[in-house]
Amino acid sequence: MKSITINGSPRESVGKKVTKALRNAGQVPCVLYGGDKTVHFSAAELAFSKLVYTPYAHTVVIEIEGGSSFNAVLQDIQFHPVTDRILHIDFYQVFEDKEITMTIPVRFTGNPRGVKNGGVFRKSKRSLRVKALPGNLPDFLEANTTELKIGHKLYVTSLENEDFTLMHPENTVVCFVMRSRAAVSEDDEDVEAEDEDDDATATPAAEGQE
């Protein structure tokens, strides 16, 4: 999984006045949990653009002024209800030998067979919870939809990998193809194909026989 570096400054005061002043200066108050001690810091709002406004998941390297460095993942984020500006971010410290759980986006590939026959493709899960060692976390989960027929579903079991564990029941549906009014059943397609083959093999002599 790709990693993004965030350069931050330590926060000794965490009161409302200090927090408001930081936001007015274009800084985002942050807290890092999961280590030996809780770390309060702030970083420029623009520094989070590639972490927050992206369809992909990333780990984070937090570089604090003074030489401290931490590996982490984004745990929670608060936005302003009107402006959508980032108000606060919580991070969770990770260690290479300890598994963590993250929400990983699903990438859908292929053109479903059922859609070619008039079916409608539907996505049930655009992201899934994954548990793994930090080094085994994928950037995304690939869901190959090519063989999906009308009425068929793709389950999370199709996305399993020995490097990580999917934190969902086996019957969780990732995507499916539903029938539409214009849909053609695959059985009908097979019959039509057979009729075309029969017409193609008929000879003029045979057609002229009484």
UniProtKB/TrEMBL annotation:
Gene3D superfamilies: Ribosomal protein L25, beta domain, Ribosomal Protein L25, Chain P. The keyword Protein biosynthesis does not apply. Residues 201-210 have a biased composition (Low complexity). InterPro entries: Rbsml_bL25/Gln-tRNA_synth_N (IPR020056), Ribosomal_bL25/Gln-tRNA_synth (IPR011035), Ribosomal_bL25_b-dom (IPR020057), Ribosomal_bL25_C (IPR037121), Ribosomal_bL25_long (IPR001021), Ribosomal_L25_dom (IPR029751), Ribosomal_uL5_bac-type (IPR020930). GO terms for molecular function: 5S rRNA binding; structural constituent of ribosome. GO terms for cellular component: cytosolic large ribosomal subunit. Residues 6-91 form the Large ribosomal subunit protein bL25 L25 domain. Residues 186-200 have a biased composition (Acidic residues). Keywords: Ribonucleoprotein, Ribosomal protein, RNA-binding, rRNA-binding. Pfam families: Ribosomal_L25p, Ribosomal_TL5_C. One of its GO terms (biological process) is translation. Residues 99-179 form the Large ribosomal subunit protein bL25 beta domain. Residues 186-210 are annotated as: Disordered. Part of the 50S ribosomal subunit; part of the 5S rRNA/L5/L18/L25 subcomplex. Contacts the 5S rRNA. Binds to the 5S rRNA independently of L5 and L18. Belongs to the bacterial ribosomal protein bL25 family. CTC subfamily. This is one of the proteins that binds to the 5S RNA in the ribosome where it forms part of the central protuberance. This is Large ribosomal subunit protein bL25. It comes from Bizionia saleffrena.
